[in-house]
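Sanity check. The docking grid for iron/sulfur cluster depends on where the pocket ends up, so I'm generating a full predicted complex first rather than guessing from homology. Inputs follow.
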Amino acid sequence: MAISSKKEIKEYQDVLKGKVWVFPDNVDTDAISPGQYLDDLEATLKHTCDTIIKEFPGQVKEGDIIVAGRNFGCGSSRETAPMILQEKGIAAVIAKSFARIFYRSSIARALPVIEVERISNEFETGDVIEINIPNAEVTNLRTGKKLVGKKIHPILLNLLKNGGLEKQLLAELKQK
Amino acid sequence: MSGKTIAEKILASHSLSGTDFKPDDIINAKLDLIMSHIGTGKVVLDFNKIRPSKNRKIFDPSKIVVLFDHYVPAPSERWAAVHDLIRKFVKKQGITNFYDIREGICHQVIPEKGHARPGMLIIGGDSHTPTYGAFNAGSCGVGNTDLFYGYVKGELWFRVPETIKFNITGKLPYNLMSKDIIIKIAGDYTAEVATYKSIEFTGDTMENLSIASRMTMSNFALELGAKFAFGVPDQKVVDWVKNRTTEPFELVKSDPDAVYSEIYKMDVSDLEPQISCPHTVDNVKPISEVAGTKINQAFLGSCTNGRYEDLEIAAKILEGKTIHKDVRMIVTPASKEIWLKAAKSGISEILMNAGAIITNPGCGACFGALGGLLGPSEKCISSANRNFKGRMGSAASEVYLGSPATVAASALKGEITDPRGF
Ligand code: SF4
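Predicted complex below; grid placement will be based on this.
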């Protein structure tokens, strides 16, 4: 992969609060990180998800959170997909379900991902969401509605806390 | 205790976390093979972060395969630089299983060179890695950070998957192919029917399919979300693999009392050719509902359907004829071996005389970055596996997925066409 991130991975926090972007079902990694721009970080930052929500790349802010339907991150294995979302400031993705490679890569990069049934029905873009990651609880602070999703496996939660797989491995190699 | 599925058996034989696990548990398992293509570039960058630098070692270079298939030959200076970086790394690390730009698509080259064998646990830096399930290997795609971890440690975490079974029976009608079956499954059961799960394809239809056709099914299964996608573990697999390697292996079969989360049954005797319509693979219609849609491009290639039998059926349909004047037909054989076979047998000549162009082996137009892109008003019939918006060029263009027979018949007529009449 020719493009790689310029940003440090964020410190893990149990509770996150942020502005919501609602995405549909089946958001694929070509939409998040288009094949044409895989060698061009600037162009990817400019075009991420613009075929789905035109204003997204221009207006997304640090700490925003994506709420999506089923099968988020399907398609190509490109890890630039979770990476570019982190680069754009996205702090977590909550979806009805994730495609497995996107899920793995998000955990590897310490981007919190939580599965919550019927999540998209409860949010509109612009709402503020509060997430308790270990409890897999999400609350819509506009409506007060709380939903509980599937808890992240303790081993994977630990990975998130350690800053992801790469950071964990580099630390481990140094200790040797 | 109940019996085990193929996935459970393969994970158990590689587990570093004991064998007393159930679906949804997370285990560490040791890897038999790691495949990576252009994503190796990111692995190299990660390797360079290891301090002290004397620790920058791969767990076992003989268990790594690196190849170039996406951007070949390098279409830009930047990709040339990535290739350069990887070539140097491969040399320095002593990776001998390196296939440079000439060999073809990873998912074709890995089995052809005997790297994928029954019972193996394989990860690949490409989503369609479940393709090697056709050879009874547990194989799945991962991202670059997971790859890096695998390169260093030779192990990785796995979530133990549930298994679903598709029992497919009946004789496929004339000019229908395994692609029609798998597209039908996508349409009937959605693109997430197998998310996080392992698939076992069984039944007499599967048994009668060639290895190439089974590879199509295991490959496309990724579009259904599958982690692993096993074909039938039978003598055909043994013979095929034995032809390619002297390494020992043993077939892994599921127990008769293995537990499946779902079992789906399907009879293909009356199946109609199937098309995945824009812009999702599970937006499926029988060909009768989309026939007549005008097309500008026909793409025959990819790791799903760029094999010899795919070129052969296209040549059978196009022999002595000329494709429609408004259609560009691009044929990209999946590997050098297939390319040469088609050249020798005369199939290449037939296709070129009909008006197709034949490119070098590789991913080609499949992923919309290496020529064969679509303009905003254009439509393409493709034998590949994805039709997401913008996958082959303009976000306003449309990609329809079908079998190689459907691609050839449609190229001939200039519109989506039922191949059964040829
Ligand atoms: S042929 Fe297409 S789907 Fe297959 S590996 Fe290449 S880009 Fe991916």
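Relevant for the grid: Chain A has one domain: 15-175.
Also worth noting: The first strand of chain A starts at residue 15 and ends at 22.
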